[in-house]
Amino acid sequence: MTDENAAADDEGENEAESAGGGKKKLFLFGGIGLVVLLAAGGAAYYFLMGSSAPMVMSGDPESPQAVQKPVVFYDLPEMTVNLATDGRTTYLKVRIALEVENRAMIDQIQPYLPRILDAFQIYLRELRPADLEGSAGLFRLKEELLRRINLSVYPAKVEGVLFKEILVQ
After folding, report:
1. DSSP 110
2. Alpha carbons 85 and 88: distance in angstroms, whole number
3. Helices H / strands E in the chain, number of each
């Protein structure tokens, strides 16, 4: 019986050691997991919330200030055109202002005003009412008009086309 008791005691000791070792491993892996999680959280905060540029104090005299260049606006005459439709007649009434760099640029553009209006009229008559729907349609219209006007007045340059009024009836 002593051999059996000794064998039983050895098994009990092995179970106690394995249970204690399991808790130590669990604690060790939990601690490592927590450290990794904190490091990942810190890295995410740094990349998402941190700024790559240093913060500039408002009283810093060496900081560069963004200076907006003065611009000049030139109003084109109001245009009314009929749009390309299959059935019912649809009209487009538009008032446009041109954004240019300075007054000298207006003097360069004015002799080309008939060419500008002609390019606009031809393009606007080809539009369908569906082409003017939504902000994306108006953005495409603005970009196309800017492209056409810069082709018409080259070497002068227009910086932007601004819609003062757009009416589709």
Report:
1. G
2. 7
3. 4, 4
